[in-house]
Design a protein that fits this description.
single chain; 5 helices; mainly alpha; 78 residues
């Protein structure tokens, strides 16, 4: 099984109700927590510039959208 298929099999997807990249919506959908609470917590995480923004970017690059497409996989031409 490839690295990207293992990411897809985890079942986490970027949320369909997106404001930016859909990470908050995906976390809210997977955990059952209110999407606005997740977005607020992520906003607080951004107060840690390198950690917050860096973690968000890594999660966005590796998280499939609703159709299963992963940005890093597309960029690598797979």
């Amino acid at each position: 099984m490839s690295f990207f298929n293992s990411i897809r099999s985890a079942g986490f997807r970027r949320g369909p109700a997106r404001l930016l990249a859909g990470i908050g919506g995906g976390i809210a959908a997977k955990t059952g927590v209110n999407v606005w609470l997740v977005r607020l917590l992520m906003l607080l995480l951004f107060a840690l510039p390198v950690v917050g923004w860096g973690a968000y970017a890594v999660v966005w690059i590796l998280t499939p959208n609703q159709s299963g497409s992963i940005p890093l996989e597309r960029w690598l031409g797979r």
